[in-house]
Specification:
By secondary structure, this protein is α/β, with parallel strands linked by helices. The protein folds into two domains: 314 residues, ABC transporter transmembrane region fold; 257 residues, P-loop containing nucleotide triphosphate hydrolases (Rossmann fold, 3-Layer(aba) Sandwich). It has 18 helices and ten strands. It has a six-stranded mixed β-sheet, sandwiched between helices. The chain has a four-stranded antiparallel β-sheet with strand order 2-1-4-5, with helices on one face. Strand 7, helix 16 and strand 8 form a beta-alpha-beta unit. Helix 3 runs antiparallel to helix 5, helix 6 packs parallel to helix 9 and helix 8 packs antiparallel against helix 9. The protein is elongated and about 120 Å long.
Length: 588
């Protein structure tokens, strides 16, 4: 993506648009607060001039009271501005965070396969948090500082043109330095956030595989990776800090020179009788006040750099279009009931660098047909099931469900009619109810949820849960592998699909749990079209047809009973090999 600010500006505008009324109110209060702050040096000068002129104490008291009232009111209004800014920040950043999360969910599996979860978390949370911090301070510390500087310059010009020009010169020099350093520092901030994303992503992956690392003695490798990534993160952060903090040091020098020059000019003007003592004091006070907003801008430069870098990365993420996108047709394009499934000349590869996972596959399943898919590991049988639910798009040929090319269907319409149950079941750290309904994506009455748990064989487990459907599951720690598999079947029952893809759904179960799964499978597949991918051939006793996949090709396809009865068929040979393996296992 281009480094031009266009996409970034558009993203910020869209994010802040719903807050425009609140922003307007906060800006109005800010202008009043800044006006009072500009008034206080003038009141101080007036007090000094009245004192020099020996005005009555009552007049001095009145000016002092106005000064105190203006100062206190300005501080109270500043607090109101800060509160409003924080509210705007939270609302806007949460809105952007939700938008990024929704977009990330839409991205295809190929994109997610090339991006670590930690990197995605850094994009959605880390970058947006940096933007939220800047939003919270932008009005008070950036916009307010700019307006305050312009106001001080204007008042200084009103007192004396030369004093105003001097204040404008020092302020302009400071602003020029800040802008130049911002340009140099933003790429360094981007590099810093990228290094952090790699660090967190790698750490998340290592923690996820902690059991394997320990079992295989690879802990030292994980620690080495942590040190290497941490060193890279520190190096990029150091460079970004040097570039960013340099602006503060240069600005401090500019402030000191400007204050001394303003005081010297004030003395010269007073000596010539062109300004009063109070006006000299006011000019000097303005020169000191000029330092404060410029320092605030310098302090916020880091946050601005982080926010700008994060916004650019968020804009890049939002600009990434999913390879698997919605088609134009909705669910009404599909016929009711069990759906036909057809793969017509399908060739598919996961990326351009790899060979085809499937090549020239032709399969046709009539509505209500149950197909068993067998083959060696890596033969492509799992890929076949993934294409039916359109987790990827084929490069050649077509996949049709109900006679409609899946690419022509909206993803929601397709997946409301096709369900997948795999051996890798994702359990969320949430209530049992949310795990069943997928956080309301498949809403069902509580009675139906309990009934489906009993239907799949989890009735006894559910009865032991004291909090019922409100039981909090702790990810994969709450249920055994078999219980998690049955919970996945419960989700499929709630979806009530017309096509079911079972991918090794009983490959890691004990015999008792497998019996529950097989019973649940029979009920789930009744009256539905099914694609059953299996290593264990015993799980295919109830299917109608068999497809044998080898090296990405369907080398055999036909009725199960006919293939089993033909001793020359590949399926029959697989059955004999499976039988011999079981006998050998029993003997040993």
């Amino acid at each position: 993506m281009s480094r031009s600010p266009g996409p970034v500006a558009r993203l910020l505008a869209v994010t802040l648009r719903p807050e425009r009324r609140r922003v307007g109110a906060v800006v109005a209060v800010l202008v009043i607060a800044l006006g009072l702050r500009l008034l206080t040096p003038a009141l101080l000068g007036r007090f000094v001039d009245d004192a020099v002129a020996r005005r009555p104490v009552s007049a001095l008291t009145k000016v002092a009271a106005l000064y105190v009232a203006a100062a206190l009111t300005a501080e109270l209004l500043q607090l109101a501005v800060m509160w409003g800014s924080v509210q705007i920040s939270w609302n806007a950043s949460n809105r952007l965070r939700e938008r990024l999360a929704r977009h990330a969910v839409r991205l295809d599996m190929a994109w997610h396969g090339s991006h670590a979860p930690g990197q995605l978390i850094e994009r959605i949370d880390g970058d947006v948090n940096a933007l939220g911090v800047f939003f919270a301070n932008a009005l008070v510390h950036v916009l307010g500082s700019v307006v305050l500087i312009l106001g001080m310059v204007a008042v200084s010009f009103a007192i004396d043109l030369r004093a105003g020009a001097l204040l404008l010169l020092s302020g302009g020099l400071g602003a020029y330095v800040l802008l130049r350093l911002r340009t140099a520092a933003v790429p360094a901030r981007e590099a810093e956030r990228q290094a952090n994303a790699v660090l967190y992503g790698d750490l998340e992956e290592r923690l996820g595989g902690l059991e394997d690392l320990r079992a295989n003695g690879a802990g030292a490798y994980a620690v080495h990776r942590l040190h290497a990534n941490s060193a890279r993160s520190w190096s990029t952060a150091r460079r970004a800090a040097l570039l960013g903090d340099g602006s503060y040091a240069f600005a401090a020098t500019t402030f000191a020179v400007g204050s001394v020059a303003t005081l010297a000019l004030g003395f010269a003007l007073r000596a010539r009788g062109l300004v009063s003592v109070g006006e000299v004091l006011a000019l000097f006070r303005y020169s000191q006040m000029l330092r404060e907003p410029l320092e605030r801008i310098a302090e916020q430069l880091k946050e601005f750099q982080k926010a700008l870098a994060g916004t650019r990365r968020a804009a890049r993420l939002l600009a990434t279009e999913p390879a698997v996108a919605d088609g134009p047709l909705d669910a009404s394009a599909l016929p009711p009931g069990a759906l036909a499934v057809e793969l017509d000349g399908v060739t598919f590869r996961y990326d351009a660098a790899s060979g085809p996972a499937l090549r020239g596959v032709d399969l046709r399943l009539a509505p209500g047909t149950h197909l068993g898919v067998v083959g060696r590991t890596g033969s492509g049988k799992t890929t076949l099931g993934r294409l039916v639910v359109r987790l990827w798009d084929v490069q050649e040929g077509a996949v049709r469900v109900g006679g409609v090319d899946v690419r022509d269907l909206a993803l929601g319409a397709l997946r409301s009619r096709v369900a997948v149950v795999t051996q890798d079941v994702e359990l969320f750290r949430a209530s049992l109810r949310d795990n069943l309904t997928l956080f309301g994506a498949r809403p069902s009455p509580d009675d139906d949820l309990v009934a489906v748990l009993r239907q799949v064989g989890l009735g006894g487990w559910y009865a032991a849960q004291l909090e019922g459907l409100d039981t909090e599951l702790r990810g994969g720690q709450s249920l055994s592998a078999g219980e998690a598999q049955l919970l996945a079947f419960a989700r499929a029952f709630l979806a009530d699909p017309d096509v079911v893809v079972l991918d090794e759904a009983s490959s890691r179960l004990d015999p008792t749990t497998e019996a529950y799964v097989m019973a649940a499978t029979r009920r789930l597949l009744a009256g539905r079209t099914a694609v059953v991918v299996a290593h264990r051939l015993a799980t295919l006793d109830q299917v109608d047809e068999i497809a044998v996949v080898d090296a990405g090709e369907v080398v055999e396809h036909g009725p199960r009973d006919a293939l089993a009865a033909d001793p020359a068929s590949r399926y029959a040979r697989l059955l004999r090999a499976s039988h011999d393996a079981r006998l050998a296992e029993e003997v040993s």
